[in-house]
Specification:
Elements lengths: L14 H19 L9 H16 L3 E2 L2 E2 L4 H14 L3 H27 L1 H13 L1 H7 L5 H19 L5 H21 L3 H19 L1 H10 L1 H21 L2 H6 L14 H9 L3 H14 L4 H20 L12 H22 L14 H12 L1 H10 L5 H4 L12 H10 L2 E4 L2 H8 L4 E3 L14 E3 L4 E4 L2 H8 L5 E6 L11 H10 L1 E2 L8 E6 L7
Parallel strand pairs: 3-4, 3-7, 4-6
Antiparallel strand pairs: 1-2, 5-6, 7-9, 8-9
Helix pairs in contact: 1-4, 1-5, 2-3, 2-21, 3-4, 4-5, 4-6, 4-7, 4-16, 5-16, 7-8, 7-9, 9-15, 14-15, 14-16, 15-16, 17-18, 22-23
Length: about 525
């Protein structure tokens, strides 16, 4: 039984060869990232970049007059990168890229050890071509690092659940999995969902190892079994409610409130990003489970994936990056399925051509490879390798407003303005060096009071969202520079239309010819003519 877990493909595949193949696959992510890592900076990235500058200067993750402590470990990695390689957005993205490369390497190696070299290489390749991987790998935020920690926890838990391993080894793997849990929690609170999913995955593997006993027990005591499951679920919900975690689970920020009740969100999002791979996932699960040699790993990965996605589908806040940590489980399933198909084709022959027919035996594997190459996922990857895909197209956030070209025409107005009002505080701090009020409806609920003029703890400055508040600010002594991103103008979760009317009635537009994505106004002193 022990040997069967490494039997798909070449049973004699050496540890070193699997590692070298995995490293080669991981290097592909570097190739894909090289042409898109220099993209426009994003609000969430700047939280870490500016806080990292604070760490370099003061030892604390300070931004302006506030503090940003979320995912501080990642911020400190960014600070280290800035010191070692220079203060640039590309440098700040290196920890994310490194996390992504390590994730591809470990996934490919782990699947290779469990299901054979072909399965491991395929899993790593699939992870590289998934659009979400590149999105988070060149994004200065903690998503790849969290996915890496979660994957190690998943792999350790799987090893701990294998019945053929020695008890001391299983205990060691269990300790490792539990040690990784708080590290994951530090990066993302969704680690709680991952913990539930991994327990479910372990139970499935253990049940498979003792299926006869489990089946007999369920048949003999069905009421006790289902009653216990219901009671456990009820107790869990009560604990979540008492700890206040349920409110946090179901809450959604204003900018994402439209997705809160879209329980099919992830099905649609993944279908859009992976029109070939995602619909094939159920078939890949069946193929993986149908082969005794890969039944355990396929069942474990499928359980973790399904349980995680179900929980996230009912959570209030939804975005593909929030569930990226389970994408490697899907890639493991695809990799195992490919290896199983090829193994059966080569062993039986009737899947492709009669045995002994030479090159014809590779007809099915060749068609599979050609299908991937010609798919949307494959074409996108080839264009990235060739450097023919720009960040604005390759990345889901690539069309973000670029403030850089506007700095020259904005400079005279900035120097003359007594205060700065903006719809994007992080970009204002990064490009302008200061701001006084953030005019953004999504930020107000995140302040200390959750009300108009509440203080954003991350920067120490105030946030507003209404026309009345805008009037109050413009009535203050001194002149004001207003810089708004076009994508937020007129949006209920950004800069409401009536607030824009106030600005246009009391301020004069700043000419930003040749730039796109932002608009600016200079508002004179109260006693001066606009």
């Amino acid at each position: 039984m022990r040997g069967s877990q490494v039997s798909v493909g070449n049973r004699a595949t050496h540890f070193g060869w699997i590692f070298l193949a995995s490293a080669a696959v991981a290097a592909l992510l570097l190739v894909l990232a090289r042409g898109v890592i220099d993209h426009v900076v994003i609000y969430d990235e700047l939280l870490h970049i500016l806080a990292a500058r604070g760490i370099v200067e003061t030892g604390l993750p300070a931004i302006a007059g506030g503090m940003y402590e979320r995912g501080e470990l990642y911020t400190r990695l960014v600070a280290f990168a800035l010191v070692q390689f220079g203060d640039t957005p590309i440098t700040a993205r290196l920890p994310s890229l490194a996390g992504g490369v390590l994730l591809v390497l470990l996934l490919s190696f782990w699947v290779g050890r469990k299901a054979g070299l072909l399965a491991g290489v395929s899993a790593g390749l699939f992870l590289c071509v998934v659009p979400a991987t590149l999105d988070v790998a060149v994004f200065a935020r903690f998503y790849t690092l969290h996915a890496l920690v979660m994957f190690m926890m998943f792999a350790a838990a799987f090893e701990a659940s294998l019945p053929y391993k020695h008890l001391s080894a299983r205990f060691g793997w269990s300790i490792l999995a539990m040690t990784l849990l708080p590290l994951g929690w530090h990066l993302q609170e969704t680690t709680l969902i991952a913990a539930v999913a991994v327990v479910a995955g372990m139970l499935v593997v253990l049940a498979m190892a003792h299926w006869a006993v489990v089946r007999e027990f369920v048949r003999s005591y069905p009421i006790a079994v289902f009653g216990s499951c219901f009671s456990l679920l009820f107790v869990g919900l009560v604990v979540l409610a008492e700890l206040g975690l349920w409110d946090r689970f179901s809450a959604a920020p204003l900018w994402a409130s439209g997705r809160a009740d879209r329980y099919h969100y992830y099905l649609v999002a993944f279908s859009k990003d992976m029109p070939l791979l995602w619909p094939l996932l159920p078939a890949a699960v069946v193929i993986g489970i149908s082969d005794p040699r890969t039944r355990r790993i396929a069942s474990f990965c499928a359980t973790v994936l399904v349980v995680s996605l179900v929980f996230h589908s009912f959570a209030g806040a939804k975005a593909v990056r929030y569930v990226y940590y389970v994408v490697p489980m899907a890639c493991a399933i695809w990799g195992v399925a490919v290896a199983n198909i090829v193994a059966r084709a080569l062993e039986r022959g009737d899947w492709v051509a009669p045995k002994g027919s030479g090159p014809l035996r590779w007809t099915l594997p060749g068609m599979m490879l050609l299908g991937l190459i010609m798919s949307q996922e494959g074409i996108r990857s080839m264009r990235l390798v060739a450097g023919r895909l720009q960040p604005t197209v390759a990345l889901s956030y690539g069309a973000e407003a670029d403030w850089g070209p506007a700095m020259a025409p904005l400079d005279p107005a900035l120097r003359s303005a007594d205060m700065v009002i903006t719809s994007n505080a992080m970009k204002a701090l990064f490009f302008l060096g200061r701001y006084d009020y953030e005019l953004n409806a999504s930020i107000v609920p995140e302040t200390d009071t959750g009300l108009e003029f509440g203080v954003d703890a991350r920067t120490g400055e105030r946030a507003i969202a209404t026309a009345k508040s805008m009037e109050r600010v413009l009535d203050l002594p001194g002149s004001a520079l207003v810089v708004l991103e076009e994508e937020k103008i007129g949006k209920a979760n950004g800069v409401p239309a009536d607030a824009v009317v106030v600005i246009q009635s009391r301020c004069r537009s700043v000419d930003l010819s040749g730039t796109t994505g932002i608009r600016a106004w200079l508002c004179p002193r109260r006693d001066a003519e606009p």
